[in-house]
Recover the amino acids of this structure.
C-alpha cells in the first residue's frame, strides 16, 4: 500500500463468468467499483492479515445495503477461520461474533483437492508466512492457461510447487536483499527472480512491494536474477494470460 495504491487486491475473470476478487486489502473497494460491480463478484483469500482482507467490511456493507446484490451469497474460498475472524471484526460488541452466512457461502481451502470457481480450477498450497496463509495455482478451465498467486510467502513451503511451470507468476517482492531480514515471511526481488528461473515460468509480475522500499531496486534485483520477462504491477493494470 502507498499514497497512490491500495493494499493487495486483484480482479480475476474468465470470459463468460463472474469476476473473482483475489484478496481485498485496505483501500481496495474504491478502485474496485470502477472495474466491476462488487455485488457480482466472488472471492478467494490468501490469508487474513489486514493488508489482504481489511476491506471485506466495506464489501459486507455494499452487499447488504446497496440494494444491488441478488439473494445469492458470494462464494468465498479462504482460510478456515474466515467466518470466525471476520465475524468478530464486524460484530457490534466486543467478544461477540456477527453471523455472515447470509452474505458469504464460505468454503475453506482444501490442501488435498482442487476447487473450482467461475471458470477456474484452484489448487491451494501452504505459504511460508505467519498464520494460516496460502499461495495458489490457478488453471483456466477453457484454455488450460496457468497462473500462480504467491499471496504473502517466503521462499519455502508450497510456493515452489504452486509456481512450477506456470504461464504467469504474480509474486510478492516486499523487500530488497539486505542483512537480517525476517525469515519465513516475504520474498525479495532476487528470490522472486531466482524462483521464476528455477521453475521456468513464462512471465513474472512483481507485487506487494512495501511503501518504504524502492520499487525500481526490487525490479533490478529480479532482472539480474532471471531471463524471464519481468514487470512491476501497477494499479489498474490489465494482464491477459
Amino acid at each position: 500500500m502507498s499514497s497512490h495504491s491500495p493494499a493487495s487486491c486483484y480482479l480475476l475473470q474468465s470470459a463468460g463468468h463472474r469476476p473473482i476478487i483475489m484478496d481485498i486489502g485496505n483501500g481496495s473497494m474504491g478502485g474496485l467499483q470502477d472495474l466491476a460491480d462488487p455485488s457480482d463478484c466472488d472471492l478467494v483469500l490468501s490469508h487474513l492479515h489486514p493488508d489482504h482482507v481489511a476491506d471485506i467490511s466495506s464489501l459486507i456493507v455494499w452487499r447488504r445495503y446497496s440494494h444491488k446484490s441478488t439473494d445469492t451469497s458470494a462464494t468465498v474460498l479462504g482460510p478456515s477461520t474466515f467466518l470466525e475472524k471476520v465475524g468478530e471484526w464486524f460484530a457490534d460488541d466486543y467478544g461477540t461474533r456477527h453471523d455472515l452466512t447470509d452474505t458469504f457461502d464460505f468454503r475453506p481451502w482444501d490442501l488435498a483437492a482442487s476447487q473450482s470457481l467461475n471458470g477456474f480450477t484452484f489448487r491451494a498450497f501452504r505459504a511460508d508466512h505467519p498464520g494460516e496463509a496460502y499461495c495458489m495455482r490457478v488453471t483456466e478451465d477453457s484454455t488450460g492457461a496457468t497462473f500462480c498467486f504467491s499471496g504473502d510467502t517466503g521462499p519455502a513451503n508450497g510456493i515452489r510447487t504452486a509456481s512450477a511451470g506456470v504461464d504467469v507468476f504474480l509474486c510478492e517482492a516486499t523487500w530488497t536483499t539486505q542483512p537480517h531480514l525476517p525469515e519465513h515471511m516475504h520474498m525479495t526481488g532476487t528470490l522472486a527472480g531466482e524462483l521464476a528461473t528455477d521453475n521456468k515460468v513464462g512471465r513474472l509480475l512483481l507485487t506487494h512491494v512495501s511503501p518504504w522500499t524502492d520499487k525500481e531496486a526490487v525490479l533490478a534485483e529480479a532482472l539480474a536474477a532471471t531471463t524471464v520477462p519481468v514487470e512491476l504491477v501497477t494499479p489498474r493494470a490489465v494482464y491477459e494470460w
Q: What stands out?
A: The first helix runs from residue 28 to 35. The chain has two domains: 1-108, 111-240. The chain has a mean pLDDT of 95. The domain at 111-240 is CATH 3.60.15.10 (Metallo-beta-lactamase; Chain A).
